[in-house]
Amino acid sequence: RRAAGFGRAPPGMSSIYFDNQLPVSEPGSVRCVAWSKGEGTPFLAISEGHSVRIFREEGEELENYKQVGRCSCTALAWHPISKVLAAGWEDGMVTFSGPQSSSAREDREVHRDAQILCITFNPQGSRCVTTDANGVVGVWKTDQKGMLSQMCHYRKSGSHDKVIFRTMTPTGEPSLDNPPFFFGGELGVIYLADDFGLCSERNKIGSPLMMLEYFHQRDMVVVITRSAILVQFGLDAEGKVINETKQKLSCGPQPEKFQGVWAGPGLLASSSHESIVHLWNLADDESYIMSLQGVDDRNTLAGDKVTSIDFNPRKRVLACGTRAGRIVQWRCSTLAGLPKSENNWQVLPVISATDCAIDKLSWGPGESLLHVKTERNNIILSEAQLNTTVQPPYLAVQTAPTQVLLYHLERQTRSIITPGFRVRGLSLGGSFVMLWNSKQVTVHEMEGHGLGVSPHSGFSRESSPIAAAVLIVQGMERQIAIATGAKIEFTNLQGHTQRSIQFSQEVEGCPLCLDVNGAYLVASTTMNVIRVWNVSRAKEQLKGAPRKFVDGRNDASLGEIRSVRINADGNRVSLLVDQRLAPGGAHGGNSTLRVPDSRLFVYDTESDCFLTYLVGKSRVPVAHSWDCGDPRLLACEVVPQALSYSGEEDVSGSAPSSPQASPTAGISLKKSLDAAATEEEATHCVMTLFVASSDRDGSDRVLMQDQIGCAEPGSGGAPRMPVALVVPHIYFARQLGDLAANQAPETGGAEQEAGSAVISRTVLRDFAGLEHVDDNTKKALLDFSYHLACGNTDEAYKSVKGVQSTGVWESMSKMCVKTGRLDVAQKCLGQMGHARAAGALRSCYEPESEAKLAVVAVQLDMIEDAENLLKKCGRYDLLNQLYQACGDWEKALDIAKTKDRVHLKPTHFAYAQHLEAIEDVQQALSHFELSGTYRTESPRLLCSLGMTDDLEAYIDRSDDSHLHRWYAQYLESKSNLDGAAREYRRAGDWLSLCRVACFNKDLDQAQKICEDSQDSAACYHLARHLEAEGRTKDAIHYFQMAGRISHALRLAQENNFDGDLMSLALSSDPSNMAQAAKYYETRGQPSKAVVLYQKAGCQKRALELCFSARLFDALRKIADDLSADSDPEILAKCAEFFMQHSQHEKAVHLLSMSNQYERAVDLCCEHDVQISEDMAERMTPEKNSVDSNQRAEILSRMAKLCKKQGSFQLACKKFTQAGDKLKAMKSLLQSGDTEKIIFFAGTARQPDIYVLAGNYLQSLDWHNEPEIMKNIIQFYSKAKAHDKLAAFYDACAQVEIDEYRDYEKAGGALRESLKYLAKAVGANAESDQRVQNLQHRIGLVDKFANTRKLVESAPEEMVSVCEQMLGMPDIESAVRIGDIFAQLVEHYAEVKNFSEAHRSVERMRQKGIILSPYIDHRILETIYTQVGQPVPVQEGGGGAAASGAHHHGGGAGGGSASSRGARGAA
């Protein structure tokens, strides 16, 4: 049986670049470079001298398509869809040719004798625009076969070398078929043109253009000028410039060398020979930089400059060429949206491409090709993977494009194969190794023990390129399976086809990947179809039906397969997958972004379902391999990569994650339940996985068994490439150059010797120490590991039950620690007989299982595993103890500082004890200080070692007062009082310093110490000493300084120091004051005693002394200091005293405070004490303090007294508090405060109060105050006093008649009065005499009002009606007779009938009507002058009133406040 090596992913993952030098005779003469577009075989066109040459990606030239002209080629461009090349020449000729062109075509007419500057195709390839140095712009119609025809051309001033197509309309709709285009050049003028002959200037920048680009998503033109100005603008529907912005760019000292490229939608990357790359986010108006500094660990790019830049949108990689010939790459790590900062770019390994400055970088189509142009050479860099394959005991590793290392796993010998062509794949079978590429196959045979290799056979396939090939050896049967076109051919070793398997290109696609393992062959196609065959017989047998790589529930694609590997039983196929995503992160079949999937897929041929395993976020699998003997064990190489698809990311529009399998889903996708590696740090590693079938629910799972880092330990972390899994080892390959430079392999690997590759191996975790066990034990260990990973403890134990080796059981114990199986570990320890470990585990009572496993790990000398377990469960306290036990004090201190702060000081203390044990005194002292125990431990340490001089120096250096106090006590015990005093002073221990001075009988010094320090303890000690010495006065002073007033008072009383006693008592506490007061009371000094009693709070005793000693002044002072919190008995006594002495106000005050409210009110009533607002509030009981009736009675009496005293508002307040709002309102009415009356009435909400308020407001000048009128109506309405409201409207009507002669408004007011009068009368309103009278009045008023309107239309009728009304007997009840006469006089005067006017005036005089209120004096003068009579004397004097009456008499209403108020009321 054979096992395939690691199946490595195609270019774009963990890879290297092979360089292909182009055979260019004069590299410096290369002027133009252009890569072909679209899918299919990539071609590179270059112009060298007078020729244009086309090369394949391997550097092979297509001789048939070489063009040679009379002059140099100055512009190249490929058709965006087909392999047709457009070339522009110095003499103005334009040619179209290429591999897919029907024939070569040329044109010399449009651009005559002018150098072609630019050739640009539109996105669909249907139009082509060419420009020249004379300002001619040609527009061509083109197709995919190279046919062209001229459509139009334009001629503008200056040369134009920049052309872009406007692929968005002003309405926001894409325009890709025949879009218009912008062009511009040296004059800074930008034109917009189309293919119909329409061309116009759109913007004038004013500086030569260095860059002209189009921001498709926002329909914006982006321009960068030679003066480093960034200009953005759009065009509206009429073609006018809108939203133009200008910004000065920071382009370093050489802005003329500016280069820019789109690095995403609206993201512009630029550089101008600096060490940084600027990225301008035009959409968000933000920018940031990426620097060459610090790109690699050794900072090899320090001082280097970026000389060229290009972006690959398919793999989202920004590449920069430098002055030193290096290529620096950054990969965008965001799936959705633009990268917002440099943190969204992942640095890829630096490539050393050449030894001179890179002039230009150009990404080819796809993801793996990059052209590098320098002054010395032209290179095509092709990104590829080194191939590996293994079949024990042989291992083959590709070390260079044309070299393969053959390695013997057991003898560890090696041999080099150099086939003479670039190797694309390897395959081992039996004693043969096969090498192949797309055109040829060679087979080599291994001979002898020295691993000799000799060529066996070879053949070529020029006509049909080889996509994949594998060598199949079954006993003596040897054949090669070759995937070519839409079939797999089976040939012998000489290349003769024996049979073939056909594929349907439309349904299945063409075979792309092959793998063979033992008797089974697997193939995947371009349409992601998987087919498996059994090839152990003469004719291959298909195993199962072809399976599409889709979700069985909804037929949704799961991705694009890039690599397949099959296990030894042929029942499982592992897959590496890519996802096609649109720039925003959504799935898109034809999108440009190809993202590797972070999931490893496994196809189970028996259950016909897919399993997934997520290798981790920001990590992708790049290679995979099944073990040669165990069909369950799978290895997978994982590399860090920020740009990856996990199927679980929250990407807008992204595909759904892989669903769980369900019994009803049939053929469906099932997701792994174990993803232990998802949260680990992204590192380059190899994962070993078990693909397990569960007996419990029948579902399959992918479980991680181990993870091995690829950085080689002991070599500075040099990278290694995993090449094979052969239990019990993982084999790695590395190159010696990696030891010197810790970085990814660089270009030039082809020049390294193949023999320099070093093969190393690492033992699998489960076989540590058991590398040489027999096959049965190896199988038992694998079964044990498998069942342990599945969680089947019983089966795991059964699989190794027969093993007797203690070493094997110890290895399994360690395996249990690594897999976290504590229960199995206990059984293994029992089999080992490891009593100490079993006892330690039994005595461990920690709640976390990881902590118990850590105990087992420590006993098995697995310190690193114990460390990881404790970190995992967060038990940093136990980890700290582990580090201490291992003597790893630096780690212990570090973990205590960062994770276990609560044990930081104990850790320092333990370390200090350790240092003390090894007699490192200085460090021990330092850590005792850090532990906070130095005050006792440091002196103890130095004293125990007899280092008294060091002790003195240590304490002298310290500023800690505790240390100086300890040392002072130490010196005092040695009778060194001077030294002790010095240390006590440094420690600030004034008590001890005073004690020493007193001991030395130096009382002056002791007093000085106390005066200077003001230390209470020192002062107390000195005071006691002075008291013992009989110096009472001084003792009292220092007792007072010490705050011990009781001692000072005691001494003053004992020695009758009355003068000092009072001052001491006043500065002491209440108890001492009371004691001193008693002393003064016994000494017959009641005034001092009263003062002290009062200060001490003994007011009762102070009052008794005042009464007994008749100290009235002191009593008044006490009364002034009383408050509501004072003793009620004291308040009552003081009140009684003030009443006896006729000080009623103070008595009332005290009675109120003592809650004797009735007595206080009685006192006010008896003695007519003037009640202020504060006094009234004090006499007001709290709501719940007395009975509510009693409280109302007190408040009513108080309110009556206030009313009597003229305090109407205060009386209102108290009546309100008593609940008698009516009396409150009556009191408030007497105050005459209209505003408060209105407010109170509005809040009282009682009809009686509303009526009172309305009545009061009617007494005011309401007809001139509309607000008062409004309130009157409102109050009467709320009180439902309809009769009063009717009377008020009647009064309003009379005001309108008397003052303004406005009978219309008077009629309206009377109608309102009638409405409310009817409501007041009730049901019998129609028969009520008042209603009838009012209706009669309304009729008369309306009749007169209507009569006045007849002045213009029917004057005779008006005169007749007026005369009729003058004859009515009751006319005066409704209409003033003077107004009727005035109407007649005014009419006659108006019509010049002065005799009738005179007769009417005389009739007025006969009836005794005063003329002035009704007729204007000027009218009277006119009338009497016309009739020749003298003007009668005016009884009312003056004519102003009449004038005003005349002014308002027109009936239009006037503008008076009353009329407006009446109108509002109506």
Mean of residue pLDDT values:
79
Please tell me what the overall shape is. flat
Number of DSSP strand runs: 66
What gap, in angstroms, lies between the N and C termini? Answer: 114 Å
Supply Rg. 56 Å
Question: Any overview of this molecule?
Answer:
This protein is α+β, with helices and mostly antiparallel strands and 1466 residues long. The chain contains 46 helices and 66 strands. Strands 52, 53, 54, 55, 56 and 59 form a six-stranded mixed sheet that branches. Helix 23 runs antiparallel to helix 24 (1086-1096) and helix 31 (1188-1204) packs antiparallel against helix 32 (1208-1217). Mean pLDDT is 79; it is low at 1-14, 649-680, 736-756 and 1435-1466.
Task: Fill in the keyword field for this structure.
flat, 46 helices, six-stranded mixed β-sheet, five-stranded antiparallel β-sheet, alpha+beta, disordered N terminus, 36% helix, disordered C terminus, 1466 residues
